[in-house]
Amino acid sequence: MNKTMKNIVNALFAVVFILLGTQLSYGQYAYFAESGKIEYEKRVNMFAKIKGRITEDDVFMKKLYEDYRKNQPQFVTMKTSLSFNKNQSLYQITEEPKTASNWFSNEPWIMVKNTILTNFESEDVVAVKKIFGEDFVLKDKQREILWKYTNEVREIAGFECKRANGLMMDSIYVVAFYTDEILASGGPESFSGLPGMILGVALPHENVTWFATKVEIDKPGPINNPEEPRRADHVDREGLKAFLEKNLGNWGRYGSEAVKASML
Fold it and tell me: Would you say 243 and 263 are in contact if contact means Cβ atoms under 8 Å apart?
């Protein structure tokens, strides 16, 4: 091998080593991205929600719906956050939705407020819930979601995320986007169980989404337990479901959606 060819080969090897070093450094950073804070925006498509509950011969509701479309925004938004480390996470509301007082102000997917502490090691969950003015403290294990992986990829808040489709509560179809650059197997509300952090969730049939708008990777810090209301009812998941079905079961489709929203 002549001197010129040898120099070219050495230069190519140098480029390869630089690229490998860059990928290794990035991979190491991703591996240690195990604590921080994520800001999410929850969006409820009110136009779709209201329209889906109107029967063909309900003239009164159709009129209310048309008035709503003319005077109100299509989406109601809520700001939430997830603080996490490698052991646990805390999900909570950071900014209440801005809604006008009208016929549809009691939308279940807006009215139900959750603060959720999840322990990744023990799989224990403590959820402080406010459901139509009533306080509950739910203590149970992490929810089981049946996940199926796909090849779809999209970027969310600067992270490459992979798509997985899921089924929860026997009937709720879930689309989730997770990143394996963050180790914690968590997400907003009670969504979890994927090999990384969930940064985006859509419930297509419920017309509700949660998507990360900002991710801060930080040093491990303490996660505080949620404050439990003094007069809250203490339940597990089955107990809460039984209570809700007993009290909301005769409310038609609205009641059915209220149960789903309350059980997240």
Answer: no
Q: What is the pLDDT of residue 100?
A: 65
CA 157 to chain centre: 14
What is d(CA 119, CA 126) in angstroms, rounded to the nearest whole number? 9
What distance in Å separates the CA atoms of residue 114 and residue 130, rounded to the nearest whole number?
A: 7
Q: Which two tokens stand for residue 229?
A: 């209301």
Instruction: Give pLDDT tens digits for 19-60.
Output: 444 343 334 344 457 899 999 999 999 999 999 888 888 999
Residue found under tokens 């406010």: 130
Comparing CA positions, the residue from 29, 17, 27, 37 lying closest to residue 218 is 37
pLDDT over threshold 70, residue 231 = yes
Phi, psi of 115, rounded to the nearest 5 degrees: -125, 120
User: Which has more confidence, 154 or 98?
Assistant: 154
Look at residue 247 and give its three-state secondary structure.
helix
Instruction: Tell which residue, 113, 126, 91, 134, has the closest CA to residue 237.
Output: 126
* Number of neighbours of residue 126 by Cβ within 10 angstroms: 17
Q: How many beta carbons lie within 10 A of that of residue 175, not counting itself?
A: 16
The 10s digit of each residue's pLDDT in 100-119 is: 677 788 888 998 999 999 99
Percent of the chain with pLDDT over 90: 67
From CA 36, how far away is CA 66, in angstroms rounded?
43
* Predicted structure pTM score: 0.85
Task: Compute the Cα dihedral for 201, 184, 240, 42 and give only its sign.
Answer: negative
Helix H or strand E encompassing 88: strand 88-95
Query: How far, in Å, CA of 155 to CA of 82, rounded?
Result: 19
